[in-house]
Amino acid sequence: MRTPRTLQIACAPIAVALLVASCSQSDDSTNANAPAKSTTDSGEGKLVMWYVGDKADKDLESLAKEFEQQNPGVTVRITTVPWDAAHEKLITAIADGDTPDLSLVDSSWVTELAATNGLRATPASIRPWMFFPGSWDTTTYKNTSYGVPFIADTSVIYYRTDITAKAGIKGAPARDWAGYLKDLKAIQATAGKQNAKLRHATQLQTGRDSWLLWLPMVWQQGGNIYDATARKFTFDSPAVTKALEYYSAIFKGGLSPDDGTDSGQKFQNGLIGTVQQGASTGGNFHLNAPALDSKWQTMPLPKGEQAAGLATGSDLAVFKDARNPDAAGKFVRYLIDVDNITAYADASGNLPAVASAWYEAEQGDDPRLAPFHTQLQATGAPPAITTWQQIADLIDSELEKLADGKATITQTQQTLQAKATSIGPGL
Fold first, then answer.
1. CA distances from 232 to 224, 238, 313, 412 (A)
2. pLDDT for res 29
């Protein structure tokens, strides 16, 4: 059943992060509106790329040097743009017509950037089946792709095996939502007793970015929050009701704190038994608390009618005003080559979005990576609408009221539907 933009089976890549601290856009583009001819169309010369991150990516720069060696006429210049400034900087650059040739951008920004007519469409020769379905979805706007997935991510459940064992849970907690809630209650019953340090069974996000964890709950119930064909929101659906019930139950039962404090640190300290996080969390646990390496494992997210997770990560985007789109295209193809993206994953610890890289990367047999393999086969992306950030903020606000007991499930659902409808889907 296709509930988010796509939710289907694909091969999966490798999450090394758990264990280690000519793509021309003119001739074969899927876009009906061909971009203006570039000032440099030979695929040579200077290539300017922005990398969105808080520090330089040495592994990406290493690939750039190798690319230069194989393409003597090209010089790659990578500029690091801090996360907190990147979004505004990209929007301003597009508005001013003064963009880099290429950028690695947060996957949640592609729809907005594409709606400004600032990006070149992805060539038809780059096929969706090369990537995880949800990762590809993050690049699409109005049925056209405007980016190429490069770094994939999704979240899974991390659980403390020492804590779950004392709750009588053999192996991983249950994979279905009803069973998972039952196991959380069993864990909670041991707090301060069998598990002396334990305060809560889990920690679920409230407030900012809580939509990241809640939206897949809707998909897991076989529903969605937006009907793209009818261009209307569906927060009034039974699937949303069920997702709100599961979310609310965790807080009503005292299974999670609602203070928004660092869940990763609490997990390390044994104050919570499970937590839902992405791939980098495992790497942080290994680096910060190596003594716990034998006491935690991972599992896919609980499922209802189906398995579902949220696709996150970063995409490569070539700008409409690129001065050297041909060189940018060649570099994109170079980066998503299976050998190159596998080398990048092994070195950086990032999840590669090219699905077949799973079979090439070095750590593919690690049992704590298998749940990422499973989860990445069933991922979706948020609705490809230009008002998405407003909708996401709305969800965060209403979920916080629900978690705090300041609104009922019915009130939350009604408010979401009414306010989202008022905001609308945008362009």
1. 11, 16, 27, 18
2. 41
Paired tokens of 272: 């919570």
Length of the chain: 427
pLDDT tens digits, one per residue of 321-363: 999 999 999 999 999 999 999 999 989 888 899 999 988 866 5
Listed in order, strand segments (DSSP E) in 319-402 are 351-352, 379-380
Report mean pLDDT in 10-residue bins for the chain, 427 residues.
Answer: 42 39 37 39 83 94 97 96 95 97 95 95 95 95 96 96 97 96 98 97 94 97 97 98 97 91 93 95 91 96 96 97 97 97 90 88 72 91 94 97 97 98 95
Domain ranges, ordered by start, for the chain:
16-153+312-380, 156-310+384-423
Phi, psi for 360 (deg, rounded to 5) = -105, -30
Tell me the residue type at 244: L
Select 16-153+312-380's CATH number: 3.40.50.970, 3.40.190.10, 3.40.50.720, 3.30.460.20: 3.40.190.10
79 near 26, Cβ under 8 Å? Answer: no
Contact at 8 Å (CB) between 146 and 122? yes
**Amino acid letter, 41:** D
Q: How far apart are CA 27 and CA 4, in angstroms?
A: 31
CATH of domain 156-310+384-423: 3.40.190.10
Sheet strands side by side (includes 272-277): 200-203, 272-277, 156-160, 296-299
- Phi, psi for 12 (deg, rounded to 5): -130, 155
CA angle 355, 357, 359 (to 5 degrees): 105
> What 3-state class would DSSP assign to 238?
helix
Dist CA 161 CA 90 (whole Å):
44
3-class SS of residue 253: coil
Q: How many whole angstroms from its chain centre is CA 108? A: 8
What residue has token string 């900087």?
89
- The structure tokens listed for 241 are 């009701």
